[in-house]
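SAMPLE LOG
Freezer: B-3
Tube label: C17
Construct: single chain, 209 aa
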Amino acid sequence: MLPPLYPANLVVEGRPCLVVGGGPVAARKAEGLLACGAEVHVVAERVGPEVRALAGVTWEERSYQLGEAAGYRLVVAATDAGDVNAAVYADAEAAAVWVNSADDPAHCSFTLPSVVRRGSLMVTVSTGGRSPALASWLKARLASELGPEYEVLLDLLATEREAVRAAGRSTEELDWQKALDSDMLDLIREGHVAHARERLQACLSSSSD
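STRUCTURE (predicted):
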């Protein structure tokens, strides 16, 4: 069992990341990094069609070279060869580079949770590597409950927060919880976004009196 995990959201945009492996699993890892703006390079003895189809990824069809993990900010080992994955992990650890070994939590310095995204809203589920099946199941349940209205809700809250700050007021003194507990979300679901904005402003105004 892994020790308790410290949750963090990594900024990988513009940073070099290495994926070792060329199959479907490696492709999914590379795709996730690309979606966050990383500069992704894939190395594998055989690079499959899923990796080749990814726009923006670079790849080389060759064996992993000992020590090359040190040249990256983040590394993923996703081959079907345990000795190669172990070598990647050892190299990355020696170079203080964050490393994930697919389906091998004992050889990870970070694990990858299941993710539900709604615009900038991100909800993650992790079981500490103990049950990926449970994480996927919970992800599906959350995805069905968190519709696109939550993205709109976040946009309204963020816009109002910036307006408050621009006016030189503290955002900490306002009762955001009161606004969230109102009928804002129902109004958004019904298509009444302007009314939802008015409700938000009214709740915040009353909490600042």
